Amino acid sequence: MRDPLTVVTERYRKNRLNYRILFGVPTRCVRLDWQRKLQVFRPGDLFAYERWEGNRYGTQSWSIVVCRASKGGRSLTRLPGILPGVEVLVHAKARTQCERIFAWLDALKAVNRSPLSIPIRQWRAVQMALKTGADMPALAKISSC
What we know:
Layout: E1 6-13, E2 17-23, E3 28-31, E4 36-41, E5 46-55, E6 58-69, E7 77-79, E8 82-93, H1 94-110, H2 120-132
Antiparallel strand pairs: 1-2, 1-4, 1-8, 2-5, 3-4, 5-6, 6-8, 7-8
Pfam families: DUF2840
Organism: Algimonas porphyrae
InterPro entries: DUF2840
């Protein structure tokens, strides 16, 4: 039996919501209409998914999830907008944590590193830094193995 593909919903409404892929290479993209599309990932693919919602009073909810597409035999976490589920590596909630993730991703780009080249153990170190409030892992210490 083959592992199922992971389907991620992207959606946009100006000043209301923005569900989007931050990084990752989907194998297929299906456009449903001008506001919605589906991104399809193979088992084991790494990607980041941002969910932002707001109203006339400002941001109401904001989260970023760095995850790996489902692979057979592993427990999966079900998240809104992602089917059937994923292995969560980093889950940033609220403004402070999301801004820390964006700053860290910008620092990666500054040193010409792709987030896809970061090993899984380093993503777990980023998660621990977010949860404990510690400094994010230094980019110089990130190995590419």
